[in-house]
Amino acid sequence: MRYLHTMVRVSDLDASLRFWCELLGLEEMRRMENEAGRFTLVFLAAPADRARSQAERSPEVELTFNWDPEVYDGGRNFGHLAYKVEDIYAACQRLMDGGVTINRPPRDGRMAFVRSPDGISIELLQEGEPQPPAEPWASMPNTGSW
Which residue in 62, 86, 123, 129 is the catalytic one? Predict the structure, then answer.
């Protein structure tokens, strides 16, 4: 058995790709459009996880965009997706500069949480040892839920 992907439904494909790719840093691996089923699938992977061959495909996030409008309710029972980042402060700053709320700031230099445009909780973890506490993160309060 091998883990393949996590699927999340998205309501706005352009806004979702901006968040997941431009701001979070994932890369689009492939895309499938199904006219009969009226949906688009976009598979994303973290740069360090990119597969060397189809047989070695790394775990991915599958964005499912249904062409007919739907309302998706997010639930905490889903949990979250987690990504290891090289510099948690730089990652959070890039997201914040892009208009993303940092729900749980990296006060400890190790962990932060944000949400995608569709409310999917994303955990960011500092690679290696935690960074020393630094402002504005050290005194930034939590916002909303994660």
Answer: 123
